[in-house]
Amino acid sequence: MGNATSNAYPLVNRNTTDTTVVKILQGAFLCKGYNPGPFDGVFGDSTANAVKKFKSNLGMPSNENLSAEYFKSLLTTDPTVLLFNGNAKIRLVQQYLNGNYYSLFKNKLSFLPTGGVFERKTSKALIYAIQKELAPLLTEYLVQHLFSNAEYGSWVF
């Protein structure tokens, strides 16, 4: 999904009256293994529950609104449920990374798959998270141990 499509995509929820958009959403949920209820283009309780479960499986706050970024993830082949060869602990890490660091890597990685299989996107997301958490400590260390030495002069940050 490119920028133009993302920008044109409406927020989909119970107020959505475009049955074609809702049918596409329901079909995508069926293909991902979720039960959106009847394939009828009506955003009812079952479709709302599928949206909430999908978002929860990603490790994100759960509500009935589906924005473009979630719809884009729904249309990928990335798993959002624990795979038969997946590891539940790895899945928890993937959900944690989505829930706490998604804003750092969303433009590069989108949502991480949460099937419990360690793969390239998980590794990259871990690097983003480590960089975020270590940056203040690294800056403090550099200031205290390297840049404070008088022979190097004054440093301005």
Structural notes for this entry:
The chain has 6 helices and no strands. The chain is 57% helix and 0% strand. The longest helix has 27 residues. The radius of gyration is 21 Å and the shape is elongated. The protein starts with a helix and ends in an 11-residue tail after the last helix. The protein is mainly α and 157 residues long.
Give the tags:
157 residues, mainly alpha, 6 helices, 0% strand
Mean pLDDT: 90
- Are there runs of 5+ residues with pLDDT below 50, and where? none
Structural class determined from secondary elements: mainly alpha
Beta-strand proportion: under 5%
In this structure, how is the largest beta sheet organized? none
Oligomer: single chain
Helix content: 55-70%
SSE layout and pairings?
Layout: H1 3-8, H2 19-32, H3 45-58, H4 68-74, H5 88-109, H6 120-146
Helix pairs in contact: 5-6
